[in-house]
Amino acid sequence: MSSFRKIPKPVVVLIALYGLEGFAANLAHPVTPSLLKNLAMPAYVFGLAFAVMQFSNFLMSPFWGNLCNYFQARKVLFVGCIGYAVGQAIFGLAQTQALILLGRIVSGAFVSATAIAAVVSLINLTTPEERKTSLPILLTSFVVMGTFGQFVGGVLGDFGIAIPFIIQVAILVFCAFAFLLTGKEFTVKERDKDKSILKQSNPIQSFIEVKNYLTPLFMMQFITVFLLSFASTSISQTFGYYIVDVLHLGSSVNGMARGVVGVISIILNTTFTIRIAKSVRAEKNVSIAIGLTILSILMMLFSPHIVGVFIGGAIFAMSFDTMVVSIMQDLSTTYASHDSQSIITGAHNSMKSLGAVTGALIAGFVYDFNALYPFALAALCYFASIITIQILLRFKAKDTLINE
């Protein structure tokens, strides 16, 4: 408990607001299938809408990471929340497929700003030692409050599909101004007067800048992040559909399972995750967490029709995965120099988004062949990530940490 008392008050405020954003971000998820069904949209639109959102997230992540070098993170958080609110408003009001996809693209582009600027803010507010405690809590707050948001959104959706969207937009606007008014000022780089802001921070230029930091260590780190995100999305996107399609259970079971994941995640990420992040064997210990995730998936694969075992395996797999996500984010910030934190955070988020896009699309494709294939594919990707972590450790041993 003493480590929690050492968290600076500005970080506590940041964590609280980021958690509130996570709550808002997930309010519309439970009613999205109903929204699309009421609009008589083809079944593929659900997966396509998720994919285009994640792809715009992927494209814009380096841009926001680079922008955090030149602008205060609190201002980027403000713009991100407002843009996200606009995207969700478009999505909620859409009557055509084109507008639905436009709303998803806008939301993906701006939600990446908040994910990156929140981490950059925390980095600037904490010492490396404090970060080992506060970064896992920051990421966990978004996940846990997100599961609560899904539950509340599902309940509100019974009274009207528009209600979750209205409340979501209102909370996002509130978070925007709260981030702007409570955020602290940090030292940022001076913008080159001979270049426009657009030229210095456009997405293409931002990807070029990332290339300058791609040491062998970071290449393996980002490959690992991609594999883990692919696997995580393959499970999370398939689980809810599987329990309805194959196990013939109500969608409320999905909400309850996610709620249990949230509770377990709080326990894991406020105890074991923090200890692992602080240890000198973080990479080896995260491999153990990945191994436990694989074992949980094997429970699902060998008991596909035993409801209790299958759902229990899924709950443990998704819970252990939250540990892995937090630790991998911490490793990226640990490997990066102070001046490259924003760029690396953007690149990290970009690879997560790319993994989510491909994971969702391929999981949907292989599900048509066999409903268990997405889970088996996730297990293979988790196993591959253990191998890439071992390779990463070899590069780390050669002192290839990034230095500007």
Short description:
Helices cover 81% and strands 0% of the residues.
Shape: globular
The largest β sheet comes out as: none
Helical content band:
over 70%
Number of helices: 17
Question: What distance lies between the first and last C-alpha atoms, to the nearest angstrom?
Answer: 37 Å
Low-confidence stretches are 400-404
Task: Give the number of DSSP strands.
Answer: 0
What is the secondary structure topology, with strand pairs?
Blueprint: H1 2-5, H2 9-25, H3 32-38, H4 44-70, H5 73-93, H6 97-125, H7 128-157, H8 162-182, H9 197-201, H10 203-211, H11 216-245, H12 251-269, H13 272-278, H14 282-302, H15 307-335, H16 341-367, H17 373-397
Helix pairs in contact: 2-6, 2-7, 2-8, 4-6, 4-10, 4-16, 5-6, 5-8, 6-7, 6-16, 7-12, 7-13, 7-15, 11-15, 11-16, 11-17, 12-15, 13-15, 14-15, 14-17, 16-17
Protein architecture, described:
By secondary structure, the chain is an all-alpha fold. Helix content is 81%, strand content 0%. It is built from 17 helices and no strands. The chain has helices at 2-5, 9-25, 32-38, 44-70, 73-93, 97-125, 128-157, 162-182, 197-201, 203-211, 216-245, 251-269, 272-278, 282-302, 307-335, 341-367, 373-397. The longest helix is centred in the middle third of the chain and has 30 residues, at 128-157.
What tags apply to this protein structure?
globular, 17 helices, 404 residues, mainly alpha
